[in-house]
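## Example pair
The file below holds two records. Each record gives the amino-acid sequence first, followed by its structure token line.
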Amino acid sequence: MQLNQKLWDGYEDFYLANEELTHIIEEGYFGEKVVLLLQKVESYEDKHQLYEIIKDWIEGDEIKFFTKTYMLFMLKVILESFETNPNQTYEEISTFITGSRKDPRKEKLSTILEFQLLSTETQKKVSTLNSKSSIGDIRNVTSSISNNYSKGIEFIGKIIPLFICLVKIKNQEEYNMYKIEKLNLHKKLIEFDACTSYEYKIITNMINRDIRNAEAHLSLIYSDKRKKYVLRKIVNGKYQNEYIKPIDLFLDLKLNIVSFINAFIYSTTLIVLGTLDKELFIDLYKQICELK
């Protein structure tokens, strides 16, 4: 894809990540449905492409109820922010995904791509395990799960500051995105609870408290002897171990971490669709609310 140099300047990371994502989709890494959708893109107006992306999720995701739960909370925050200041809200969301000429480091598409690739790879590896799997195979899978989980926690730590800013826009309060981003995950979640008057505890309670507190130096190591992960945490100034079963960590990854990040992706996609076609937005929003 050839781009005007002015358009490229400041958005290089975003365009490179977008180009890489397109190639990976074309190779069938995310499945046949996504490939077919990509092939149809040129025949769609943008709004129809976005509609099909969300419609495909509604009809195909087996854990969509968990994603829906987080989505409805996210959409409420975004829409309330839009009601107060649509331009500032759109700028914050857009900058989060694409970066800006002033600060291209804020681009997060490459982070989304990395996490989705890890999630797809982890799911494939888990599906290969059976009673005859060797210790090496098991360690390979457990390593993939813990790495995927850690990357998910890391990315959620980048999403939360955006929502803190959106709440502050809605409340017409001053904020400094850079200062919020520098907080550790635990302090970010405390700040989010405080500025929302604890209205969205479903989001802040999603992450295991010990993992939330250990996020800056998260250490999840699988012990084959114990058949469990060992999470090292500090209690009263001393290290203490907590043990987590692989199936529990994998379910937490799939039902909470992956669902939360997918909810963010589909929420922002739906919002963009709403700026293009209000009727399509309402149609999909009603379908999402009716999901069971």
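Second record, same layout:
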Amino acid sequence: MLPKGYQPSKRTGIISGIILAIFAIYSLSLVSKRNRAFDREIRFTIGEITDIYIIASGREIEYTYSVNGVEYEDARGYAYNSEAPGGKYWVKYSVEYPEISEIYQNMPVDARIDTIPPDGFKGRYDYDQFLQWKRWVAQERKKLNHED
């Protein structure tokens, strides 16, 4: 507790202001990077909700997704109709910054989709590409079985 009538020094005020300004600039740069990332090339993959927890402002989910064999983890506000944990949903990510993502909790992944290209889809409903990928996987499996 501070003594009655305490007045911080001018130096303390200046240092506090500088720290606050640095924090504000850093926060704005993160938001700007995220917005720019989604303005460029994006792709979609499947994400799985791994956890749900309570924070001061409500509930949040944690989810994982994979891009080119690299596993990423992110967290977002919980949509009350989500199946958590274990629910699988479409995740939009930046090709340039794959760690920047957004999960669509209102768009569960069709249970028939069990394989996805390592670099994801260009669109959530790019089933032609998906079918080509499945055919390629089947051909590669046949090749491996014939080589044994």
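Notes on the second record: The mean pLDDT is 79. The first strand starts at residue 42 and ends at 55.
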